[in-house]
Amino acid sequence: MTRAILALLARDLRLASRVGGSGALSLVFFLMIVALVPFALGPDLNLLSRIGPAILWLSAVLATLIGLDRLFQADEEDGSLDLMTAAPVPLEGVVLAKVVAHWLTTGLPLTLASPLFGLLVALDGTAMASTAATLAVGTPALSFIGAVGAALTASIRRGGLILAVLVLPLMIPTLIFGVSAAQAATGGTVPFLVPLAVLAGLTLIAAVVGTVAAAAALRWPE
Amino acid sequence: MRLDVDNLACRRSGRRIFAGLTFALEPGGALAVTGRNGAGKSSLLAILCGRLRPDAGRITVVGVGEATLPECLHAVGHRDGLKSALTAGENLTFARDLLGAARLTPRDALERMGLGHAHDLPVAYLSAGQRRRVALARLLVCARPLWLLDEPTAALDVASQEVLARLMAEHRAGGGLVIAATHQALGLTDAMELRIEPSGGEPAPPADEGLEDWT
After folding, report:
1. What is the ipTM of this complex?
2. Which residues touch A137 (CB under 8 Å, ≥6 apart)?
């Protein structure tokens, strides 16, 4: 069973690195949104550094959606999903492997790149570190929540937009606590660890509920 | 293994596709599922794969221990389950690691299908018939007792059809089961025929005289 899950993980990572994979694309998309904001707001450094964590988080939420619509749809279309149903692994294990691969190719690069992109919105060292920490804790929740939408829209052609409409509202709690944790580090009345602990809790809940719900949606498409 | 299907019915989007389907397969047995387009051949295979929930009826597998039916079968259908960006070898290695019960190495399996040269080629470069042969090579990289084949000869040339017929004969000689949905003779000797009739008619009784005459 572990062997099958590792095989699935390795395959998804390899696919993401080949032509047409969405690995680098979401990172570039992340950079695009973050880079556009200073152009829209003007060179007001105080304003930028105040809303910087929020911009990074919003961009991360949107960048997570890139590639999410193909998470299960690509396997549904070419029949790979039938292969996975026949594997000696429960479908929950398949979902878990695919979501972890999705996070490793989108959430993790976003987290690692966020201090660098923080420069574009005039974040100082503390804010950069706290934003990166909250992204590291919170982006897995985005991948797991997105997986439920991806599983529900797996058999729908051009389901990307429906997917965004379905999952974005569910990502609001993660966004709220992610941004408030990042801002709590640079001042405010709440200690940094309180919203961070709530964020970690949200991620754990999303990991359980998301895995089970996505597997259920894949199991009986009709 | 032994497969018993009792009084199976299928309903899709509220419309009844077939009902009252009953058959049993002994080790070494083969079943050719026939019927007009849309009669429910692929739906029957989807139910056996566990991708579709039957409306009624029961499927029993005997002699495989704890394994469920989807874990005992190989399915090769219209959708070949291959990733275009990966090479044929990578696709087969993935299938072997995912499904377990490894038998031939991917290279040997491709050699058997006459595709040894394609081992390091991305599947995107292969023709429809070659892709189908890579998908069929999956039958050889892991050992599973039941083969579910949906139109397996589609896009295959005559030589490959003979290879497939030989593989199926070997598989059955080793006690394996084959269920094939098809419009063409596959070279399955002594296969039972299950004709799915529209609107829930009774399936035809098994014919024992082989399938050469029903093309």
Report:
1. 0.83
2. A178, A196, A199, A200, A203
Shortest CA gap B148–chain A (Å): 12
The alpha-carbon gap from B208 to the nearest alpha carbon of chain A, in Å, equals 31
Structure tokens at A185: 């580090």
CB-based contact B196:B203 (threshold 8 Å): yes
Q: Do A86 and B80 touch (CB under 8 A)?
A: no
**A127 closest CA partner among A51, A198, A197, A61:** A51
On the question of pLDDT at A182 being above 50, the answer is yes
From the list A3, A21, A86, the residue facing B73 with the nearest CB is A86
pLDDT above 90 (res A198): yes
Please check whether the domain covering B1-64+145-150+168-215 is classified as CATH 3.40.50.720: no
Q: Name the 3-class secondary structure at A33.
A: helix
**For chain B, what are the domain ranges?**
1-64+145-150+168-215, 74-141
For residue A120, count CB atoms less than 10 angstroms from its CB and return exposed for 0-12, middle for 13-18, buried for 19 or more: middle
Domains in chain A: boundaries? 2-219
Give bridge partners of residue B21 from the DSSP assignment: B8
- A18-53, pLDDT tens digit by residue? 866 667 788 888 899 999 988 998 888 888 888 889
| Under-50 pLDDT residues of chain B | 200-215
Nearest CB to B82: which of A6, A21, A78? Answer: A78
> pLDDT band at residue A222, thresholds of 50, 70 and 90?
low
What whole-number distance in Å separates Cα of residue B96 and Cα of residue B93? 5
Closest CA to B86 of B73, B95, B78: B95
Cβ neighbours of residue B29 closer than 8 Å, sequence gap 6 or more: B172, B177, B178, B192
| Range A100-109 average pLDDT | 91
